[in-house]
Predict the 3D structure of the following.
Amino acid sequence: MRIHDLLEIDAERFLQPDAALFPWIIASVRKTPYVVVRRGPVSEQSIPVGVRGSQRSERWAGFCCADRVKRVLTPDGLLDQPIPLLRSMDAPALRSVPILAERWRAVGIPWGPGGSVGFELATGREVVRPQSDLDIVMYADRRITPGDAKDLLASAQGLPAAVDIRVETPVCGFSLLEYAGRTPEPILLRTAAGAVLGLEPWDEAGGAR
């Protein structure tokens, strides 16, 4: 199980232990019983997850017991999800997915849509807006060079929607754009312990400063 994976859950069992949840969380989970894996330590007993509501301000970070999970959907697996024609016409971010998939056919790194696009493809709930960006998640277990990053960014230009590409390594996450333009100065690395500045995203220590 990885950060940005979407989990289909047993809504009532997920909600039952916590009577202090905001009403929008309860309504959202009952309507669309999916949560997203967020950054943090994952164990068999506790998975850090996030819940999204109908408004941008409605985001909640919590935990889910593994036995509440019915199905795991990965960003790269969502590339096989069909996109209804009418939705693709209304939402440039959705229209951009198959175009990028064609351009990145030879990319040897698992990747797929995250954010609102990934959520809609996984759940069928229409959350992508006309102005939404296309959030992309790449899982790079092995190091990529800043030059490779520049090539990936160049091939993602000119899509119907703006693209924001996040890279996840075994130890942290970071912006591909920031990494591609790196200098000897560190970049922002998002780790389970919090955000730090570092030089090497594949180093266990992160080259943190």
Residues 92-103 form the longest helix (12 residues). Residues 77-198 form one domain. The chain has seven helices and eleven strands. The mean pLDDT is 93.
